[in-house]
Amino acid sequence: MNEKELNIYLHKKKELLSFFEKKSFQGLYKPLNYIFSKEGKNIRPFFLILIYKFYGGRNASINSVALAVQALHNFTLIHDDIMDDSPKRRGKLTIHKKWDVNTAILSGDALMIYSYQILSSVKFRNDKKLLSFFTKTAIQICEGQQLDMDFQKKENIKIEDYLNMINLKTGALFAFSFSVGTLLLGSDHREQKKMYDLGILLGQLFQLQDDFLDLYGGKEVGKQKGLDLLNNKKTYLVLSFYRVANTKDLQKFKKLFYSKKQQQENILKIIDLFNIYNVKEIVVSKVNTIINSINTIINKSAISDKRKKQLKSYIKLLSKRNS
User: Which CATH code for domain 3-319?
Assistant: First the structure.
């Protein structure tokens, strides 16, 4: 993303990592440095800062809010990787694989606590609302993660229920990032809702892309191919297949999906089944529908036409990610 918008944020992040490096309990803090150094494009901090500025915000403390968001996000990644037993993230070993599960749990817990410490340092008139919103978001992420795990044990999941899970697990933090600036500025409630809804949709877009890349992504993804299938996750691809497949092919899929033998071969057979029913195209079509809905919200927002164009272009860039 555009580093110009992230200059102060990146400096604050560097200060945080320097603080971690100086701590004596490096068994706890080395993993925190590791996950921050391996993170991707700082998407949530970028949009948080950008939207705040688009609505006229000038308080530099917004960069600390962005850092708190990224700390909370990284905490969720550490624990998510443990629950999924993911060996890699962004092409590098996950923390529980590089160290061990107990270290990963403790490091994740510490990072979540630090996210609140960072947030407590900011100075806004609406800082009580900020803390309440941040806490609500953190709880929603946990609720979404629990739903995700519950779905692995259930046979029949509706696509609407899956999207609701995404809205919690992934969308909540995007919604916070897009709308917290309008909250802090005391913008019209309708503008706050537009940005919140935009964030929810971006969360859906992001998760559906993750579902897609898990199976169809290249080496750039940096994760084991078909890991969601190996973990019996009811992704958007799986649920779309459930909707369109005939009984015979559905039974074939279930045998492959739940088998613990020859799993890599089974993934290739599942891809063949998906190809028969154009599952790939179904997901791409849904992604395009989400992008159109996002653009509709942007068109109705109170920001300038120039900024609308900028925002659309950033989201278009994000919609074409391959990792």
Answer: 1.10.600.10
In tens, the pLDDT along 37-96 reads 876 779 999 999 999 999 999 999 999 999 999 999 999 999 999 998 888 887 789 999
Residue partners of 9: CB distance under 8 A and separation at least 6: 42, 45, 49, 63, 66, 67
Closest CA to 145 of 79, 201, 96, 205: 79
290-303 residue pLDDT tens: 999 999 999 999 99
Report the candidate in 157, 178, 296 with the shortest Cα–Cα distance to residue 238: 157
> Residue ranges per domain, the chain?
3-319
Asked if residue 112 lies in contact with residue 73, where contact means CB atoms within 8 angstroms, the answer is no
Question: How many whole angstroms separate alpha carbon 37 and alpha carbon 27?
Answer: 16
Angle at 120 between CA 7 and CA 104, to 5 degrees: 80
> Which amino acid does the sequence have at 319?
S
For residues 228 and 238, give the distance between their C-alpha atoms in angstroms, rounded to a whole number: 10
